[in-house]
TrEMBL record:
<dbReference type="InterPro" id="IPR018338">
    <property type="entry name" value="Carbonic_anhydrase_a-class_CS"/>
</dbReference>
<keyword id="KW-0732">Signal</keyword>
<comment type="function">
    <text>Reversible hydration of carbon dioxide.</text>
</comment>
<dbReference type="GO" id="GO:0008270">
    <property type="term" value="F:zinc ion binding"/>
</dbReference>
<dbReference type="GO" id="GO:0004089">
    <property type="term" value="F:carbonate dehydratase activity"/>
</dbReference>
<dbReference type="InterPro" id="IPR036398">
    <property type="entry name" value="CA_dom_sf"/>
</dbReference>
<comment type="similarity">
    <text>Belongs to the alpha-carbonic anhydrase family.</text>
</comment>
<feature type="signal peptide">
    <location>
        <begin position="1"/>
        <end position="18"/>
    </location>
</feature>
<dbReference type="InterPro" id="IPR001148">
    <property type="entry name" value="CA_dom"/>
</dbReference>
<dbReference type="GO" id="GO:0005737">
    <property type="term" value="C:cytoplasm"/>
</dbReference>
<dbReference type="Pfam" id="PF00194">
    <property type="entry name" value="Carb_anhydrase"/>
</dbReference>
<keyword id="KW-0862">Zinc</keyword>
<keyword id="KW-0456">Lyase</keyword>
<keyword id="KW-0479">Metal-binding</keyword>
<dbReference type="InterPro" id="IPR023561">
    <property type="entry name" value="Carbonic_anhydrase_a-class"/>
</dbReference>
<feature type="domain" description="Alpha-carbonic anhydrase">
    <location>
        <begin position="41"/>
        <end position="307"/>
    </location>
</feature>
<protein>
    <recommendedName>
        <fullName>Carbonic anhydrase</fullName>
        <ecNumber>4.2.1.1</ecNumber>
    </recommendedName>
</protein>
Amino acid sequence: MFSPSLWFLLTALGCTLAFIEIPEEYLAEIREDQAGESAAGEYNYDNQGDDWQGTCATGEKQSPIDLIFQDSKVSSISRLRFNYYNQSLRTPLVITNNGHTANMVLPVTRDGHRPYINGALLPGDFEVQSVHFHWGSRDSKGSEHAINFERYDVEMHIVHKNTRYETMAEATQHWDGLAVLGVMFKSVNRLTTQHYGLNKIFNQLPRIVEYQSNATITGQLNVGQLLGNIVTGQFYTYNGSLTTPDCAEAVTWTVFDDILEFPHRQIAKLWNLRDSRRKPLINNYRSLQDTNPGIRDVYYRVIQDSI
Ligand SMILES: *[C@@H]1O[C@H](CO)[C@@H](O)[C@H](O)[C@H]1NC(C)=O
Ligand SMILES: *[C@@H]1O[C@H](CO)[C@@H](O)[C@H](O)[C@H]1NC(C)=O
Ligand SMILES: *[C@@H]1O[C@H](CO)[C@@H](O)[C@H](O)[C@H]1NC(C)=O
Ligand SMILES: [Zn+2]
């Protein structure tokens, strides 16, 4: 027998997930994520976020920004440490079109560990929560951050929560609540075999074209695979915000300057998604925000042998 909530979900889902059992613990996480998404209220990308209110309009440590090498403090930051990033996650994983992006809540590993990051300038241990993407369209690039004035085709965000806070809702109320890893994708015309995990995710996109549809991913997947083959030793890091309402200034950003090359054929699948108005979900990126160098610094880490 299913628990009542699982039963409710399976009824709501119709056939897509009907025969795949999803652990109650993971369902609870998905529900928490969706509650957070609902709490943000209605918003869209018609003006790239320039019409969003509240902290989005008044904040002084907003994201995304242009990450400029010349304006950064190049310092000997210790490396970013990835813990349990190479351990297989419990499956199935659920990927959802939430009207603003393709979002996947990440469960614990098969042996019950929650992958986390620390090191670099992170103020604590940050457990992985979810991954989502920002993209453009056939004619435009869709990364949120820019690196040395250049924007890229897609930007992936891997969202982490400081272990000192119980919930995402609580974490967003503190400057040290969240850590997001940003990875830039550049579209290439050849197929790459190096991105097993990402290909698994992108292969499901045709099944989540409609708003609130979801699909499952089974088999072996670990969080490390999301990073493909990029060099993680060089990155920009700074204090910023969520790039969606309410734009809470709760994020330590780490944006890698090594670019992940990803097949155009896969990226094109993102442009077919639809939002809650059944309009094409394209250009779901926020415009660049003021860096406000008097108020915050942007740091750049270079690879050094001894640290
Ligand atoms: C996983 O990462 C650890 C270090 O974090 C390493 O010692 C181990 O060999 C890795 N395992 C696999 C299967 O890659
Ligand atoms: C999947 O889609 C259904 C129907 O739109 C939605 O109500 C439900 O919350 C989604 N479930 C998950 C696990 O995301
Ligand atoms: C972020 O802000 C906190 C609190 O003001 C500060 O201690 C920390 O050094 C800042 N981190 C970065 C990366 O600038
Ligand atoms: Zn994002």
